[in-house]
Amino acid sequence: MNLKLTIVLFLCSIGAISAQHKKWTLEECVAYAVEHNLTVEQYELDLKNAQIDKSDALGALLPDLNASSSMTGSTGLSFDPTTNEPVTSTILSANGGLTSSLTLFDGLRNFHRLNRAKLNALSNQYRLDDLKDDIRLNVANAYLQILSNKESLKVFEAQFAVTEQDLKRTKELVEAGVLPKGDLLEVEATAANLEQQIVNTQNQVLISRINLAQLLQITDYENFDVLDADFEVPPSEVLTKSPKEIFAEALTFRNDIKFSKSNIDLAKKDLDIAKGAIYPTLGAFFNYNTRYSDQGGFNTTGVFVPAESFVNQLWINDGISYGLRLDIPIFNGFGVRNNIKRSQINVEKAKLQLEQEKLDLETNINQAYVDVKSFSKAYEAAQKTLEARRLAYEYSKERYEVGLMNAFDFSQAQSRVDNAEAELIRTKYDYIFRLKVLEFYFGLPLELK
């Protein structure tokens, strides 16, 4: 029994350790951020409120029904509710009833409110989806920043390993009298500089991990990490599209555009509701009432008759009333007219906001397109620069090893290679992110392969 318990605890501990050291993919980070973001949760609550408003609007089209009852005891002069005659004794009475009313016509305002509530729920859904889109882009940017910093760290660590070998070889040459001691000091300075760059890059990796963890609402920064992978620049069909084609496609699915269009529809419904106040309101009502009194009375022969039972009086003393009510607006201090004018202005403002959103979207797409082209060229230039720097470094290394170059010039050649590799990594991930942004505007999912 103890052996089984030990095995179970051991397996649980392994599961806990593996969960702590989970490596997150971009897709997992995006999904987790969308699910746990606090602003998303707030917008989801707003969406639930909008759905409740839709239920309220639907209920306004239905008749209401309310019940009421009361029981009263009085001493002295009072009126018997069953006979409306004054009595001077102690009396116990009760009243009860049902009331129902229904709006038959109100300028179709209730129908417009129902349609508005449906549109408002849809608008809140678009706003929520637009927020999720922004989160996805922010997470992708933070994720790629971690990968860029990690790859830079690998480069510096590899360069430091090479420099350690150079340091060992230089010591041997200095001890053999082939090189002056100054060359050894120069190589040692290069190694120290690389160590400093490694420390700085390690800090950058940590900070970028923390930034992404905060986007995901994860507080366990130490154990949070992303999947180690060296992503190459992916091929993309979006590069075959023009900015106009990408913009035209974006207009068909972008949630910010849908949100702005829904705001126009909402403003139009508000205008319909405001116009409905011009018309008369016609309503119907129905009331059922009954009453009870513990007071008896004298009949026509002068004999005192005790009060009927409570149940019998409910049937004997009940009654109904029903009817119609018509309210005609005549003058209300220009309130209705001014509300209509305000609603008309809001419609125009919503239309202008949509046009502004379209202009912003087109500007962002053009900027993203230019960024992709410029960062593509920067990445190609960085590749050529690194290739040239490496060739120059190999040539310098050969000259340094035979004593035709001093340690300072050799360290400069190596430093230029380090800078070129760091620039290549930076431009590569900058290019990947800009490419993903352009793909995102075209409707392609955020994926790294």
From TrEMBL:
Cell location: Cell outer membrane
GO molecular function: efflux transmembrane transporter activity; porin activity
Highest taxon, organism lineage: Bacteria
Transmembrane segments: none
Keyword Coiled coil: yes
Pfam families named among the record's database cross-references: OEP
Primary location: membrane
Keywords of the record: Cell outer membrane, Coiled coil, Membrane, Transmembrane, Transmembrane beta strand, Transport
Keyword Transmembrane helix tagged: no
GO CC terms, sorted: cell outer membrane; efflux pump complex
InterPro entries: OMP_efflux, TolC-like
Signal peptide interval: none
Coiled-coil annotated spans: 340-371
Family: Belongs to the outer membrane factor (OMF) (TC 1.B.17) family.
PANTHER family: OUTER MEMBRANE PROTEIN TOLC
Protein name, entry field: Outer membrane efflux protein
Organism: Zobellia galactanivorans (strain DSM 12802 / CCUG 47099 / CIP 106680 / NCIMB 13871 / Dsij)
Organismal lineage: Bacteria, Pseudomonadati, Bacteroidota, Flavobacteriia, Flavobacteriales
